[in-house]
């Protein structure tokens, strides 16, 4: 059951980004609604990471408009994005191995009582959060090092949920995970959608995309190359949009011939 | 946000149900009761999570060996002397532990302690300044020196090893310059610094009182914590567990108090050391600042992304190391009742680092407690005193201390390997 609101939580209108001579993004459009998982796919160098970083405030955009809940906003710093309610979970995990799960969840925003860490309250809230997300880990008081890769990824995602974000960006959350662990993470992505979060999922894995995404936005060479509805689109169509296979030697020859005949 | 809000926002009833039945066969949650301790203990052993066990076993062996060689070893006088002597090295080890938790090293602590002693001597003896003020200036200069090292490491990005090695040489020269031509300035043994290691609370009640305060304080804090945990429904430590720990603490606390009262009473130096240990342990484990230090020892990148000011924490940690080096220097000066050219040199630096590591602080960062300083320094000073009683010369002392350090580092490394295979590194 997917509720899609009328106004998108986040909308990019004609966003462009240059790095010196390199045009990384050109006129990119993207819409994400609450309770919707949008997969962002594309070949290496297609501009997925750059696009995510512009939304997360790491790289400010050069041209175009970012709309948040229908209003144009400026995102110039990571802090701006966080204040709006955008949480980003990066590919390389940002967790400390030697600290336990509770400590990692609250790292940098510890709950305090008279200046002293309120461990009991943090532990209670952590357990509550993990159980609402149905995250299964042995104990919230064991170091992150003891957890499997999938469990760590779920903790990293749960950590982003503490700020109660409206939009969660997941950068390759299942890369380097095993089958069972990938399933755990995908389950969690579905739960985020059920709870009404907008989700942008970057992935290389078409099976994952087909499994959890509602829409697929394809980037190719820094430009939009189609937005597809996952249910009605075949995997081949998406892949050909990613690789630009629709534009191959045969189609080019056909186009040239057609032009020559004119 | 509040998680209360999120919990009501669960749309999927299956997910909520899943939370109740979330029992993974690999769950490592401890069984309740005493049986649980045994299984937990065995699991920790297999997982290489030895904690302080090796060093406590080592201390027992040291006591048994030296006591069998010479019955003077565990006499009240010897134990009391060990307790006083270890404070200088121990204070400096506390500072080193802060740096080790970051996964860094500070080689300058010996020289900085020498500077501190020299500053006090020059200001109070040569210039006739109020001794309290001189002590404060000495400690503050330690903090400033540490902060300078921290600045070059954290802000400029020079390796801490190289920066503090440079500091070792520079501050050694600085101390010699301060002391001037005579090279030795004697301190008034009845002054503030002099009293640090010579004052004893002769009243029998003092030692027993401190032991009682420690035991009651420990029990109350553990008991109240358990009550609070039970109240909000998170796992808590069973009361029997608290009782056992309190009993062990009481045996050691009152045993030590009895020992001290057999000789000259409770040493002031030891009281100050214990206060520092309790205070620093509290800072490291119960405050956001301490949590940040551990986080930096675990992953600098993760800490940075969590919004931690990495540079500020690093500079402050080196300042803390400098401060404790200076405090250690005061105890050292008090012990020899002078500031001389040998202060802060010799094997002091190595003993400080060895004490931290022998006590169980990892050289790899992110693992350790300041209580490790107490255990480690007890081992080192006990060996020194035991060998001195036997009339064995310094060369053998160095060799034995070196061997103990090697054994400890080997244990630390093997522990890490075992922990990695057991997934607990």
Textual characterization of the structure:
Chain B: It is a multi-pass membrane protein. Chain B: The chain crosses the membrane at residues 50-70, 82-102, 109-126, 132-153, 160-179, 199-221, 242-260, 266-284, 312-333, 348-364, 371-389, 395-414. Chain B: This is Xylose transport system permease protein XylH. Chain B: Keywords: Cell inner membrane, Cell membrane, Membrane, Sugar transport, Transmembrane, Transmembrane helix, Transport. The complex is a heterodimer of chains A (262) and B (425). By secondary structure, chain A is an alpha/beta fold. Chain A is built from 9 helices and 12 strands. Chain A has helices at 48-56, 78-84, 101-105, 119-132, 149-161, 179-194, 206-212, 235-243, 249-261, and strands at 10-19, 22-32, 37-42, 63-68, 71-73, 86-89, 112-113, 116-117, 167-171, 198-202, 215-220, 223-229. A 6-stranded mixed sheet of chain A has the order 6-9-10-3-11-12, sandwiched between helices. A 4-stranded antiparallel sheet of chain A has the order 2-1-4-5, covered by helices on one side. A two-stranded antiparallel sheet of chain A has the order 7-8. In chain A, strand 11 and strand 12 form a beta hairpin. The longest helix of chain A is centred in the C-terminal third of the chain and has 16 residues, at 179-194. The mean pLDDT of chain A is 85. The longest helix of chain B has 29 residues, at 204-232. Mean pLDDT of chain B is 85; it is low at 1-31. Chain B folds into 2 domains: 51-202 and 264-421, ABC transporter involved in vitamin B12 uptake, BtuC, CATH 1.10.3470; 203-263. Chain B has 425 residues and is an all-alpha fold. Helices cover 74% and strands 2% of the residues of chain B. Chain B has a two-stranded antiparallel sheet. Chain B has a two-stranded antiparallel sheet with strand order 2-3. In chain B, helix 6 packs antiparallel against helix 7. Chains A and B meet through strand 8 and helix 4 of A and helix 1, helix 2, helix 10, helix 13 and helix 14 of B.
């Amino acid at each position: 059951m997917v509720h899609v609101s009328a106004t998108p939580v986040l909308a990019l209108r004609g966003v462009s980004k240059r790095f010196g001579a390199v045009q990384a993004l050109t006129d990119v459009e993207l819409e994400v609604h609450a309770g919707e998982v949008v997969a962002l796919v594309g070949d290496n160098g297609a501009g997925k990471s750059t696009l995510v970083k512009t939304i997360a405030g790491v790289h400010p955009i050069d041209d175009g408009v970012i709309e948040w809940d229908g209003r144009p906003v400026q995102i110039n710093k990571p802090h701006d994005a966080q204040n709006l309610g955008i949480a980003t979970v990066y590919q390389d995990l940002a967790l400390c191995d030697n600290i336990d799960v509770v400590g990692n969840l609250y790292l940098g925003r510890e709950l305090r009582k008279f200046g002293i860490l309120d461990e009991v309250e943090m532990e209670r809230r952590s357990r509550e959060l993990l159980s609402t997300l149905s995250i299964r880990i042995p104990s919230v008081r064991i170091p992150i090092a003891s957890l499997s890769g999938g469990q760590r990824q779920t903790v990293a995602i749960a950590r982003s949920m503490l700020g109660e974000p409206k939009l969660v960006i997941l950068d390759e959350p299942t890369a380097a995970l095993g089958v069972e662990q990938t399933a755990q993470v995908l389950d969690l992505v579905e739960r985020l959608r059920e709870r009404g979060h907008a989700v942008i999922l970057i992935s290389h894995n078409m099976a994952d995309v087909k499994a959890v995404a509602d829409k697929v936005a394809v980037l190719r060479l820094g430009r939009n190359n189609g937005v597809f509805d996952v249910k009605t689109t075949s995997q081949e169509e998406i892949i050909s949009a990613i690789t630009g296979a629709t534009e191959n030697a045969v189609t080019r020859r056909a186009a040239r011939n057609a032009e020559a005949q004119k | 946000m509040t998680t209360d809000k999120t919990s009501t926002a669960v749309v999927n009833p299956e997910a909520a149900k899943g939370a109740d039945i979330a029992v993974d066969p690999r769950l490592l949650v401890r069984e309740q009761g005493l049986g649980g301790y045994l299984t937990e203990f065995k699991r920790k052993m297999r997982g290489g999570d030895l904690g302080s066990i090796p060093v406590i076993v080592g201390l027992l062996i040291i006591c048994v060996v030296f006591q069998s060689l010479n019955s003077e070893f565990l006499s009240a006088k010897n134990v009391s002397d060990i307790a006083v002597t270890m404070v200088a090295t121990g204070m400096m080890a506390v500072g080193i532990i802060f740096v080790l938790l970051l996964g860094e090293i500070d080689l300058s602590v010996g020289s900085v302690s020498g500077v501190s002693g020299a500053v006090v001597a020059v200001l109070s003896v040569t210039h006739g300044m109020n001794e309290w003020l001189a002590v404060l200036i000495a400690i503050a200069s330690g903090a400033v020196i540490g902060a300078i090292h921290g600045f070059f490491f954290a802000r400029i990005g020079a390796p801490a090893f190289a920066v503090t090695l440079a500091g070792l040489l520079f501050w050694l020269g600085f101390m010699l310059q301060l002391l001037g031509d005579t090279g030795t300035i004697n301190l008034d043994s009845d002054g503030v610094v002099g009293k640090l290691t010579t004052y004893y609370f002769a009243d029998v009640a003092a030692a027993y009182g401190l032991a009682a305060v420690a035991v009651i304080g420990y029990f109350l804090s553990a008991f109240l914590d358990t009550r609070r945990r039970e109240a909000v429904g998170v796992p808590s430590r069973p009361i029997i567990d608290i009782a056992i720990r309190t009993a062990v603490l009481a045996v050691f606390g009152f045993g030590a108090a009895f020992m001290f009262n057999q000789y000259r009473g409770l040493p002031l130096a030891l009281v100050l050391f214990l206060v520092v240990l309790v205070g620093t342990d509290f800072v490291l484990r119960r405050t956001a600042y301490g949590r940040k230090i551990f986080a930096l020892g675990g992953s600098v990148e993760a800490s940075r992304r969590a919004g931690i000011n990495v540079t500020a924490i690093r500079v402050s940690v080196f300042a803390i190391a400098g401060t404790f080096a200076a405090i250690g220097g005061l105890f050292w000066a008090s012990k020899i009742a002078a500031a001389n050219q040998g202060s802060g040199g010799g094997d002091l630096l190595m003993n400080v680092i060895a004490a931290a590591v022998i006590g169980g602080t990892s050289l790899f960062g992110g693992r350790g407690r300041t209580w490790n300083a107490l255990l480690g320094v007890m081992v080192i000073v006990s060996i020194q005193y035991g060998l001195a009683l036997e009339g064995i010369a310094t060369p053998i002392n160095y060799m034995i201390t070196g061997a103990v350090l090697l054994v400890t580092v080997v244990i630390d490394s093997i522990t890490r390997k075992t922990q990695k295979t057991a997934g607990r590194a």
